[in-house]
Amino acid sequence: MDDDSPQARWERHTEVPLGLCSLLFLTAYAVLVLGHGLPPAARDACLAALLAAWGLFLVDYGVRWRLSGQGPRFVPAHWLDTLVLVLPLLRPLRVVKVYEAVQRRRGRPRLALYARVAFYAGLSVLLLGFAGALAVYQQEHSAPHATIRTFGDSVWWTCSTLAAVGYGDVVPVTRLGRTIAVGLMACGLALLGAVTGSFSSWLLHVFAREGDERPPGF
Amino acid sequence: MDDDSPQARWERHTEVPLGLCSLLFLTAYAVLVLGHGLPPAARDACLAALLAAWGLFLVDYGVRWRLSGQGPRFVPAHWLDTLVLVLPLLRPLRVVKVYEAVQRRRGRPRLALYARVAFYAGLSVLLLGFAGALAVYQQEHSAPHATIRTFGDSVWWTCSTLAAVGYGDVVPVTRLGRTIAVGLMACGLALLGAVTGSFSSWLLHVFAREGDERPPGF
Amino acid sequence: MDDDSPQARWERHTEVPLGLCSLLFLTAYAVLVLGHGLPPAARDACLAALLAAWGLFLVDYGVRWRLSGQGPRFVPAHWLDTLVLVLPLLRPLRVVKVYEAVQRRRGRPRLALYARVAFYAGLSVLLLGFAGALAVYQQEHSAPHATIRTFGDSVWWTCSTLAAVGYGDVVPVTRLGRTIAVGLMACGLALLGAVTGSFSSWLLHVFAREGDERPPGF
Amino acid sequence: MDDDSPQARWERHTEVPLGLCSLLFLTAYAVLVLGHGLPPAARDACLAALLAAWGLFLVDYGVRWRLSGQGPRFVPAHWLDTLVLVLPLLRPLRVVKVYEAVQRRRGRPRLALYARVAFYAGLSVLLLGFAGALAVYQQEHSAPHATIRTFGDSVWWTCSTLAAVGYGDVVPVTRLGRTIAVGLMACGLALLGAVTGSFSSWLLHVFAREGDERPPGF
C-alpha cells in the first residue's frame, strides 16, 4: 500500500472522490425512494446522479483490474470489490477508507486504537443500516399484507435487527425484503462481535496493566 | 485527576452532592410519571425538585466549562457531559462515579477487578433500565393502539430488550418511544459485551494461572 | 478449602448428601407440578419430600452459620447461599459442586479445562432451565389469556429465552411468571458469555500455540 | 492422526468419499422433501441413494469400531460420531474435514488462521442451516395451524434463528419441529461465540502487534 506502484497511486488519488461519490449515490437513492411527491424532473436528476455514480464505480473497477495485470484471476481475488460493484448500496463502507485517508494526510491518527475500532464499527453500521432500511422500505411498503409501511417502520425494524433483538411486530414479507434482512442480520452478528471483542480485549488490556502496577497480593 | 488543579478539586467536592442530586431527579421523575392520583401540590413539589436538580446540573456544567478555560472547544471535547446535560435521565450513571469516590475516601477499593466491572455494569444497567422503562411508559401508556399500558408491561419490555431477547408481545408504537427503545438496545449490546468480555478475560486469566501452576503435561 | 477447619470438614462431608437432596427436591417439585392426576397420597408424599429437603437445607445453613462464628455478618457475606435457601429451585446448581467433589475423590480431574467449563455451563443451564420451565408452567398454565398452556410450551419458551432468540409466540403473562422469566434471561446472558468467552480464549490459546510452532513468516 | 496405524490410514482414505457421500445424502434428502411433483421413479431413486449413503456411514462406523479395538467403550468415547450416525443430517459437517484433507494433500494450508476459522464456521453454519431448514419444513408444512408453509418461510425462520434475532412471525408448532429448532438455536449460540471469539482474539492480536511497533507513549 505504501509503495509507489501504479495501483497504489491510483487508489490514493481516487479514495476521496470515490468516497464522496458513494455518499452521492446513497443520497440520490434515498431521495428516489422517499420522495414520493417529487416532480419528474427532480426524480430524473436523481436517477442520473445514481447512474453516473455507478458508472464511476465501474470505471474505477476497470482501471484497477487493468493496472493489476492479473487477468481473470482479479475477480475472485477481489470478490469483495466485485460484490460492492454489483450492490453499490454497500459502497458507503468506503467512507471508512476516506476517513482513514483524510486522517493520514493530516499526520498520524489522533484516535487511540479502541476508539478507532468503535468509531469505524459505529460508522459502518450507521451507513449500512440506513442503506438497508431504504432498500427494505422500497421492497416492502407497497407489498400486500406488508407490516413495514412507512420509512419509520423500516428504521425501527432495522434497529431491532442490528441489535439482534427482533421484536417481530414489523417484519419483511417479500422474498427480496427477506434477503436484504438476512444481510442485515449478518451485520448485526458482526456488530455484536465487534462490541464484545473490543470490550473483551480492552478488559484484558486493563487487567494486564493493573496487574503490573499493583502488588501481586491484590 | 489526582492533581490539585481547580477542575480536579471542583469534581472531587461536587461528586457526592451531584450523585445524590441525580437520584433525587430520578425519584421525582418516577413519582411524576407513576403517581397518577397524587394531589396537585405533591406533583408541583416533584416538578420543582426536578427543575432544581436540572438547574444544579447546568450550574455544574457551566462551572466546569469556565474552569477548563477551553472556550468553545469544551462542548465537543466533553460531548458525553453535554449529552447527559440535555438528557438528564442518563444522569444516574454518575452514581457509578459516586461509588468510586466513596470507596476511594475509605481507603483502597475492596472489590477485586472482575467484581468491580460486574458491579458497575449491573448498577448502570439497573439505573438506565429503570429510567428507560419510566420514559417509555410515559410516552406509550396513553397512545392509541399501544401495547405497553402499565408500568409492569414497560419493565417487562425493558428486560426483554436489555437481554436482547425481544419477545415482541409488547412493543413501543410511538416515534419517541421507539427512539428511547433504540437507546436501550444499544445498552443491551453494551451489556452483552460487558458480560461476555468479562467472562472471556476471566477465563483467560484462570487458564493462564492454571497453566503456570500445573505440570505442562496436563 | 483444603484446610482442616470445622467448616471445611462440614462442607466436605455434606456435599454429596446435599446434592442428592437437591435432586430429590427438584424431582418432588416436578412430580407435584406435572402430576395432575396423581392420587392425594402420592401428592402428600411429594410435598413431604419437598419440605424435608427444604428443612435439611435450613439445617445446613444454620450449622455453617454457627461454625463460621461470623454472627450477623454471615448473611451478607454469603448472600448467594441465602438466596439459594429462599429459592431452593436454584439449589440443583450444587450438583456442579457434587460432581467436582466426586471427581476430586477419585483422584485428579480427568477433563481438560475448556471441557470442564463447557460441561459445568451445560449442566447448570440444563438444570436451571428445567427448574425455570417447571416454575413458569406452574404460574402460567391456568392464568387467563395465558399462551403457555402445556409443559411442552414452557420448555419451548425456556429454550428460546436461554438462547436469546425470543420468538414471542408463547410468553408469560402473569407478574410472577415474568419475574422468573427475567431470571432466565439473565441465565441466557451468562450462557452466551460462557460460550463466547470459552471460544474466544480457546482461539487465543490455539493461535498462541500455532504462533510458537510455526515459522514467523506464516 | 499423523501416525500410520490402521485407523489413521482408514480415515485418510475414506475422508473424501464419505464427504461426497454426505453431500449426496443431503441432496437426495432435499429432492425428496422439496420435490412434491416428482414421478414415483425419481422419488424411489432418491430414497435408494439416501439409504445407500446411510449404509455406507454404518459400514464406516463399524470398521472404525473394529479397528479401534476398544470394545463397548468406543460408543461413549465417540459419542459425536454415534450421534452423527443416528442423525445423518448432521453429516455434512464432515465436508469441513474433507476440505482440510484436500488442502493437506496440496501442501500446506494457504489460508491464514483467522480466515480458516471464519471459513469453517461459515461453511458449517450454511450446511447445518440448510439441513435444518429442510427438516423443519418437512415437519411443519402440513401441520394444522402451521405458520411455516413454504420452504422460503423455513429458510427465513432458520436465518432469524441462527442470528439469534427470532422475529416470531413464523415459528414451528409441532413437537419434532421445535426439537429441531432447539438444535438450531444451539448452533446459533455457537456461531455467535465463533464470530465474537474470532473478532476478540483478532483484535487482541492486532493490538499486541501495534503495541510492539509503536512507541509506548502512543
UniProtKB/TrEMBL annotation, chains A, B, C, D:
Protein name per Swiss-Prot or TrEMBL: Potassium channel family protein
Coiled coil: none
Keywords per UniProt: Ion channel, Ion transport, Membrane, Transmembrane, Transmembrane helix, Transport
An individual GO BP term: monoatomic ion transmembrane transport
UniProt-listed InterPro entries: K_chnl_dom
Pfam families reported in the protein's UniProt record: Ion_trans_2
Superkingdom of source: Bacteria
Signal peptide: none
Residue spans crossing the bilayer: 16-38, 45-63, 113-137, 180-204
Biological source species: Streptomyces kaempferi
Domain Potassium channel: 132-203
